[in-house]
Amino acid sequence: MQRQTRPLHSGWTLHCLGGPGARPGLPEAIAASVPGTVHTDLLAAGLIPDPYLDLNEITVDWVGHCDWRYDTRFNWQDDGADHVELVFAGVDTFAVISLNGIEIGQTANMNRTYRFDVRAHLRAGENHLSVTFQSAWKRGEVLASQYEPRPNNYPGPANLMRKMACNFGWDWGPTLVTAGLWQGLALESWSKARLARVRPEITLDGADGLVRLHADIDQAETALSLKVSVAGVTEVLPVSGGAGTAELRVKSPELWWPHHLGSQKLYPLTVELLAGEELIDSWHRDIGFRSIRLDTTPDDYGSAFTLVVNDAPVYVCGANWIPDDCFLPRVTPERYAERIEQARDANINLLRVWGGGIYETDAFYDACNRAGMLVWQDFLFACAAYPEEGDLPGEIEAEARDNIVRLMPHPSLVLWNGNNENIWGWFDWGWQDVLEGRTWGQGYYLDLLPRLVAELDPTRPYWAGSPYSGTMDIHPNDPNHGCTHLWDVWNDIGYEHYSDSVPRFCSEFGWQAPPTWATLTQSVHDNPLTPTSPGVWHHQKATIGNDKLLRGLKGHLPAPQTMDDWHFATQLNQARAIHFGVAHMRSHRPRNMGAIVWQLNDCWPVTSWAAIDGYGRKKPLWYALRDVYAPHLLTIQPRNDGLAVVAVNDRTLFWRGPVTIKRMRFDGTVLAEWTHWRLCADRLSAAELAIPADLATPGNKRDELLVATMHDSMAIHYFAEDIDLELPKAAAEFALERTGEARWSLTVQALSLIKDLCVFVDRLHPDASISDMLVTLLPGQVHEFTIECVGELSLSELTQSPVLRCANDLVQAASGAGN
Ligand code: BMA
């Protein structure tokens, strides 16, 4: 008989067992979803308001402080299987599980799979399964009394337990402490044996693909064999001692590439466990053939930090990924696919799954495999000291084993990383004084985790931390070694300082802005709505975040006087800050080989560093990323007291052509022009060309700009910041045409210089979207926007502030010349 899996996802009810602040009068049995969470069940039953709206996060705080019980009943008939097990793919977090009134097990780790033998406790006919959750807050108090103090950047006991850290609140996330069966569960019946663990190590050997497959078998008493197949190659081998290893060589397979370098061929890999001719278990994954290594060779600057995929050094145009929703089961495979498509459309080629969230789901990785999106996965440690005593080391080893093996078949996964900012914290954040020699996690990052990766997934690189220099003898955030986090720029000094250093690899840097207008007004109903009105304030979690937003405008844009101007100016500044930082870093390829912006997404509607807001809408930053992460980037950069034009080429074919540079007045008059007959950026490299001084030196820096063009790439350079520019009042002619059922074309012909033109269609229809933002037009230039919108649109609505905005009107408003 083949192993049978029967999901137990129906008939669940939820019952409140009380706790501080428990809402009185809750029904005895609330209809519940599995997979699901207590919060989403209460929400669906109309028993709590939406925690994402206004100040409701506070109103629903009691939910996380209560204990809860989930119950279901199911029928079972003995089919004669030798073994019947109850398998939980994910339990959040502290639960006691009972079957027919008998405790069958306990859980204490959200990141593990749990399997319980329940054969002896099942009854023919109806069975009662119940899962009782203890509040993580409550358990946290117990743990805090057991462990001596350990620094944690955020309130809550996340560093004492194995539960998603950002659940307890983060500087972009609410405190919504969940409980529930966040992944599926099933009854599994099997006889003779089952595939307990399958570990495919996938590499290249020259042009050939190699699969070294290790299978561990449960209860192998009978004579068994394994049949392994991939890409037309099949191996059959006997199993001995409960394990089998097969090696398959695939001649010249099509390779798997990140999307900007090639296609993503996936091959089905199947493993069958046979007892004689009988199929008793099987396993299947789509795999890809590619090689991966992390080059950290010492060089003139320090040491490299370069991901090398299929022998191509890859410049990482990355984004940090946080859980896409506080309530994880809401992130469906479709939602993952959509978000990852949005990342890919912004020319992002790597997502870093940050350590305060989860080991991402297979649905996430499947979407990345298909999209050609590289993934760097953190182990789950963030911004805190973690004890190395008590139950923690055992839980951490168990979860690491589970997740390394679960994720290793995915070709998109290219790096394991030990933690987020903990080594930095130990060096710089005063931890050593508090710790007085107590453990803080070093043993995990420098010993346990690299050992487990080497044992289980030896073809993938491991790095101990982000940031980390490669050795405890060099400061973890040393820009010349390893990966660096650049946070003082946003926190303290201003975005022009991104160009002060050239990190080898920048795995975090970011700039805040509010969410899109539609998302802001759907989630916050303040009247009046201002940057500091209660709801807007509540949906800003960063320490003095609003002050930093305003400080960050200084020297660049005028201080906004209205809510509309605040919203636009801060979003514009976010987009420009990151564009500026990335263009600087990419222009220094190969000394710098990666930028991972903080952050791609949000888990709820909030002012944050995200490019895509909590309801999935694109902020102007998304458009700026698409531009500055383009595989061909032309940029004008300061070099040797002058200016240079830099062509950055992330393709595998050379990029060359004539470069034309013009110095112009804002009215379009050409003051100087120069064409260099050929600039050539070799494959995967950058090439620089000094701009002659007569072009690079303005006559009037307030009224001139430089424009460089090479093929269809363009770079613009201003000689002063917007507050000092004489930007004219924007003038244009517009035409609107319906080009499909829900598709419109908006044509703009500029009659003046228009800097960073945006048309915020979400202000008219929340679900409308537009093809481009931050478009700069010289007088006479034309741009056609495509708008997706099911509702009606009119030209007069579209072309009025605050729907249509540009930098000109911010500057004009400040100088008093505007409307
Ligand atoms: C780093 C990240 C996150 C945080 C971000 C913004 O510390 O690792 O913990 O959200 O900066 O402050």
UniProtKB/TrEMBL annotation:
Keywords associated with the record: Glycosidase, Hydrolase
Family in the record: Belongs to the glycosyl hydrolase 2 family.
GO terms under biological process: carbohydrate metabolic process; glycoprotein catabolic process
The protein's Enzyme Commission number: 3.2.1.25
Molecular-function GO terms, alphabetical: beta-mannosidase activity
A Pfam cross-reference name: Glyco_hydro_2
The organism of origin for this protein: Devosia ureilytica
Protein name: beta-mannosidase
All residue ranges annotated as the Beta-mannosidase-like galactose-binding domain in the record: 29-183
Catalytic activity: Hydrolysis of terminal, non-reducing beta-D-mannose residues in beta-D-mannosides
Glycoside hydrolase family 2 immunoglobulin-like beta-sandwich domain: residues covered: 229-290
PANTHER family listed in its UniProt record: BETA-MANNOSIDASE
